[in-house]
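Onboarding guide, step 5: your first structure request.
Type a short instruction followed by the sequence, for example:

Predict the 3D structure of this protein.
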Amino acid sequence: MKINIPTDRQIWESEIATFWWEEEVLVSLSKPVMRTVENISANVELVKSITHNQPAPLLIYLASSPIPDKETRQLSAQKVPEIYSAMAMVSKPGLSQFIMKMVFAFKPAPIPTKQFTSKEAAVAWLKSL
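The system replies with structure tokens like these:
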């Protein structure tokens, strides 16, 4: 899945993702790097600055990355509802389900979360919420 980063709007970069707005949806192109407590924490702060501390709907294009440690997975699950109101994950079949199981292994996702293989379906779902 080839995603083109737009050139007609502001782009934000973190160690783990590239972000931009498409209408009312925050878009994230994840990077294939190991997630750590440090880079997840920095990413949360970046997203809060982008969204002015208001949880936003997220369309995330997932990349394969190494499995993070338990502490990082727990931090991710804890921080998700602070920065996102809903999460639509777009990836190759199977990848997003695997990532969901890893991040939310101990309890269900704290926000509406759904997996997609197409951007159009993901955006339609986010806008329906």
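Each response can be followed by summary notes, for example: The first strand starts at residue 12 and ends at 13.
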